[in-house]
Amino acid sequence: MQDRPLAAAGSILLAMVIIGFIDQFVSVIAETSSVWTFHFLRSLMMLALAGGWLTLRGDWPVVRAWRGVAARAAFVATAMIIYFGSLGFLPVAQAAAGLFTAPIWILIFSVAVFGLRIGPARIAAIFLGFAGVMAVLSPDLSDLTLGTFVPVVAGACYAMAAIATREWCAGEATVTLAMAVFAMLGLYGLVGIGIVAVIGAGDDFVTRGWVTPDAATLGILLLQAVCSLVSVLLLTRGYQLTEASKASVFEYSVLATSAFFGWLVWGDVLTPTGYLGLVAIAVAGAIIAYRGRTREVAA
Prior knowledge:
Number of domains: 1
Distance between the termini: 19 Å
Number of strands: 0
Strand content: under 5%
């Protein structure tokens, strides 16, 4: 077992820079396309890229627990549908803040479902993370709407996927889990297109159905597919180089990269309170990860 935290940090930080950049352009697609078309076409591209890579390697993985893999993929896909859907009306930094409440939700679900006993440090981290989310999403309480909290639901679904990874998919190859998610997202996209065709299309990113992409949209989709696949590989490498509890902390850098690229590309600027909220979410996640690691070592 390797333990190279600096190398892991470099790999994961690069992945977060890529994600923070490419997700800025979902808002461009949102102007004319739909979240369902986006996921259907992007998933086809990602599956084609991953399948070609595996074919060249001659190393297709074997699925050991189909139900567990499918259930985990459904949770991740639901989280991603909600997250990307929210990018149609929220800046990336705000949407990412909601998604990265996942460690807080993991702790809550672990206590409620599995009877985990937690100490005061992690209880404080839950409240700190919640305060951070409130600060990032809308410091002005008069501006709060139900839509503001949509990304937090994505965080809850992502938390369930993390629990499923450990409980149901421990023996699966990383590429198996990744391709299952790509396939589930493609299926969600196809089903969404079908539902909208039956009930009638609206005029926004979520309520539109199939939209034939133009050249610019196809270019962004291809960029998303390639960069997302590279990010998955970098993340996988990072988790192979050190303990998961150490590696997960570096993922919070996406909050900073999303805020930076949001400012650089679109001129989106959070309030000072919002930036403090990003720091609070990252610190809360780090506390939860670190305290969980020390308990495992003590056990």
